[in-house]
Write a structure and sequence with these properties.
By secondary structure, the chain is mostly helical. It is built from 7 helices and no strands. It has 2 domains: about 70 residues, lambda repressor-like DNA-binding domains (434 Repressor (Amino-terminal Domain)); about 30 residues.
């Protein structure tokens, strides 16, 4: 029997929906490639029930299983986009604030900052 952990039971309905949609996209990708559950499971060296759980968006599926599935579907490059620095808007804003504080410490006024953001 699988172990219940806080990480599995504390996700909001919105996040559970997102995981379900990810599973659905994986199922569609498999079907577009004319692969059965057992075909994909064999390529992943996994069981059909594990693939079914993945396609349902089960929160207990490991990242290794997800990565193996994406590799078998030829979608592994998509993982490189997850949490990429270039698209992390929150971190970019944080970096910008930090750089602005550094400039102020060096004696640059707010007006100079505003009109001279590129430097």
């Amino acid at each position: 029997m699988p172990k219940n952990s806080l990480s599995k039971t504390s996700l909001s309905p919105d996040y559970l929906r997102i995981l379900g949609e990810l599973g659905e996209r994986i199922r569609f990708a498999r079907k577009r490639r004319d692969m059965t559950l057992s075909d994909l499971a064999a390529r992943m060296m996994s069981s059909s029930s594990t693939v079914q759980r993945l396609e349902r968006g089960d929160v207990g599926i490991s990242l290794g299983v997800l990565m193996s599935c994406l590799m078998c579907l030829g979608l592994e490059k998509d993982m490189e986009k997850v949490a990429a620095m270039e698209t992390d808007v929150i971190a970019l804003a944080h970096d910008r604030r930090r750089l602005m504080r550094k400039k102020r410490r060096r004696g640059i006024s707010r007006e100079e900052e505003f009109f001279n953001l590129e430097t």
